[in-house]
Amino acid sequence: MVKNYLQITVAVFLLLILQSCDSTLCDEGFTEVDQNGGTVCLPDYVVGIEKSTWLGTDFYHSDFGVIAFKDGSWVTSYGEKLELSDLD
After folding, report:
1. How far apart are CA 27 and CA 43, in angstroms?
2. Beta bridge partners of residue 77, listed in sequence order
3. How far is Cα 20 from Cα 46, in angstroms, rounded to an integer?
4. I want to staple 31 with a disulfide (CB 3.0 to 4.6 A). Which of 60, 65, 72, 80 is the partner?
5. Could you give the CA distance from residue 84 to residue 74 in angstroms, rounded to a whole number?
6. H or E element in which residue 75 lies
7. Of the candidates 43, 79, 84, the residue with the CA atom closest to the CA atom of residue 62
8. Inter-residue contact 49 to 55 (CB < 8 Å)
9. pLDDT band (50, 70, 90) for residue 64
10. 3-state class of 35 per DSSP?
11. By the 8 A CB rule, do 40 and 33 touch?
12. Res 77 pLDDT > 80
């Protein structure tokens, strides 16, 4: 009888562990990006995010991929300067 309880407890525990495993590394509002040989979570671009300096200067844009805010302008990882109208 105790053996059955132990088996059920172990089975439930394993199911809970397997179910709670999340395949994404990043929180909501961030995107997983391979950068410099590693995986990082970059904040998703939203209008006005460049004012949030605590997030850094690199962001993820759904159309352009990784973009950076440098010297008051948005640039792609290829150095192409973007206009604000491009980012909408």
Report:
1. 9
2. none
3. 29
4. 60
5. 8
6. strand 73-76
7. 43
8. yes
9. very high
10. strand
11. yes
12. yes
Indicate the DSSP class of residue 6.
H
CA–CA gap between residue 18 and residue 84 (Å, rounded)? 43
Is the pLDDT confidence value at 75 over 90?
Answer: yes
> In whole angstroms, what is the distance from residue 44 CA to residue 59 CA?
6
The neighbour count for residue 8, using CB atoms within 10 Å, is: 10
Please provide the average confidence, as pLDDT, over all residues in the chain. Answer: 80
| Res 48: pLDDT | 73
β strands within 10-72, DSSP E? 30-35, 38-43, 58-61, 65-70
Which residues pair with residue 34 across a beta bridge? 39
Cβ–Cβ under 8 Å, residues 77 and 65: yes
pTM score, two decimals? Answer: 0.66
What is the rounded distance in angstroms from the CA atom of residue 19 to the CA atom of residue 46?
32
